[in-house]
Structure formats: structure tokens, C-alpha cells
Amino acid sequence: MKFLVKGVLAAAFTLLTGGIPVWGQQPGGTPPPASTAPAAPASKSDPAAAKPAAAKVNINTADEAALMSIKGVGETTAKAIIDYRQKNGAFKTVDDLTKVKGIGEKSLSKFKDQVTVE
Predict the structure, then answer these.
(1) Disulfide check for 33: which of 12, 18, 39, 71 has CB 3.0–4.6 Å away?
(2) Which domain holds residue 93?
(3) Is 12 contained in some domain?
(4) Per-residue b/e over 73-89, b at no fewer than 16 CB within 10 Å?
(5) Where residue 73 sits, what CATH number does that domain have?
(6) Whole-model pTM?
(7) What is the CA radius of gyration of the chain?
(8) Residue 91 near residue 115, CB atoms below 8 Å
(9) What are residue 115's DSSP bridge partners?
């Protein structure tokens, strides 16, 4: 009878401690259950977590630095956008960027969601 009571108590203790009997642990054995603490912040390699969503860049008013903040637009393209805007006036639509030398449909599709015309 004593053996049965000890077995029941041992089983209850095992259940209450997350299923790992303390007296049965061996080095390199099963790790303790994961903590219920809140998840750690996203890693730095996650681009979405690294930067909050930025406002769209207005291609009719943006200076060179603002245009270069658009992923996929470098210094040459930013200057070309400004030159085109100065010679031809404001853009009516974002798709008008394809009229700028060096910007085709394919390159525009990469950054179209980052720009606006106001």
C-alpha cells in the first residue's frame, strides 16, 4: 500500500511540475518546458520589424534625398525624376514615372507602392 501511495504522489508531482520528475533529471536530459513569458521582439533581420511603415513619397514635391529614400531609387534616378518634373511639370499619375529616362514598367513595379502623386 505504501508503494502505491508513493507512486500516486510521484505521478501527481510529476504532472504538477510539467512532467519532469526532479529526481529523475540527468545532465543533457530533456529540457524544461518553454517559458510562458512574452515572445522576444522580432529579430533585426526581419525588415518589417526593423522599420515602421513609412509614409508614401510625393513625387511632385520630394527633393533628391526624399526620392532616394524610396527603395529602388538611387541618386541617378532621383535626379532624373527631378529633371523631368522641372521640364514637364507635375506628374499626373504614379504611372507617369515610366516617362522618366531609366524607369520602366519593371522598375516602377518595385517601388510603385512607396510613392504617391498629390
Answers:
(1) 18
(2) 57-116
(3) no
(4) beeebbebbbebbeeee
(5) 1.10.150.280
(6) 0.55
(7) 31
(8) no
(9) 57
- The tally of domains found in the chain comes to 1
Q: Would you state the pLDDT for residue 2? A: 56
Q: What tens-digit pLDDT sequence spans the chain (118 residues)?
A: 555 556 656 666 565 666 655 555 556 656 656 656 565 555 555 555 555 566 899 999 999 999 999 999 999 999 999 999 999 999 999 999 999 999 999 999 999 999 999 8
For residue 37, the number of C-alpha atoms closer than 13 Å in the C-beta half-sphere is 5
Q: Which residues are paired to 58 by β-bridges? A: 116
- CA-nearest of 117, 114, 109 to 55 is 114
99 within some domain: yes
Assigned C-alpha cell, 59: 513625387
For the chain, give percent helix, strand, coil, nearest 5: 50, 5, 50
CA angle 62, 67, 69 (to 5 degrees): 125
In angstroms, the CA 90 to CA 40 distance is 46
The verdict on residue 106 lying in a domain is yes
